Amino acid sequence: MTERVERMLTSYENGTMDRRRFVAAVAALAAGSAATTQAQAPALFRSRVVNHVTVSVADVARSRAFYQGLLGATDIGAPSPKFSDLRVGSSFIGLYPLGNPGRIDHFSIGIDDYEADRVLAAVKQRYPESKPNIAGDREVYLTDPDGVRVQLSQPDLKL
After folding, report:
1. Taking the model in full, what pTM does it have?
2. CA distances from 115 to 79, 82, 91, 142 (A)
3. So where are the chain's domains?
4. The sheet that has 149-153: what strands, in order across it?
C-alpha cells in the first residue's frame, strides 16, 4: 500500500495528477483497505442451519396447501387456522397472517454454543446499528443492513 501511495504522490508532484484526483485516490485506497480489514474480521458465530423462515401470508390454509403440495411439507403440531408451521427436512416454514402478505417476516439461523445473553452482547458490540434484542423464548433478533429481520438461536430450535 505504501508503494501505491508513493506512486500517486509522485504523479501529483509531477503534475500528471491534479489535487482533486489525488485526494479521491487516497480516499478510495483507504476505504478499500478498511473494507478488506472488516471483511477479514473473524465471524462472531459459526452457523449450523437455516432453522426456519417465517412468511407473512394472506390465507394460512391456502399457503399450507401450497407448501404441502409443492414440497411435501408436514404440519408440526395440530393444524390451526391462525398459523401453520410446516416441517421441511430439518427446518420449517412458518406461515402467519402478519399483515404483509408475500413478505418474509424473518429467518432464523441456528448457531453453535448459543447462549442468548452472550450472543446479544457480542452482536451489540460489533453491530450496534442492527438494534439487537432478545424476544420470544430468548432468541436474539436483529436487522441486517437492508432491514431484514434475523433471528439467532440454538441449531435445533424446537416449536
Report:
1. 0.69
2. 31, 30, 20, 15
3. 2-39, 47-153
4. 74-75, 84-88, 91-96, 47-56, 103-111, 149-153, 139-143, 133-135
**Tens of pLDDT, residues 101-118:** 999 999 999 999 999 999
Length in residues, the chain? 159
Give the span between the Cα atoms of 105 and 99, in whole angstroms. 10
Query: Is the Cβ–Cβ distance between 82 and 40 less than 8 Å?
Result: no
**Cβ distance 149 to 100 under 8 Å?**
no
Q: Which residues of the chain have pLDDT under 50?
A: 37
**Inter-residue contact 107 to 52 (CB < 8 Å):** yes
Residue 104, classed as helix, strand or coil, is strand
Cα dihedral value 134, 48, 105, 103, nearest 10? 170
Task: Say how far residue 156 (Cα) sits from the centre of its chain.
Answer: 18
Cell 438461536 sits on residue: 153
- CATH annotation of 47-153: 3.10.180.10
Helical axes 2-14 vs 19-39, angle rounded to 10°: 170
- Collapsed DSSP state (helix, strand, coil) of residue 40: coil
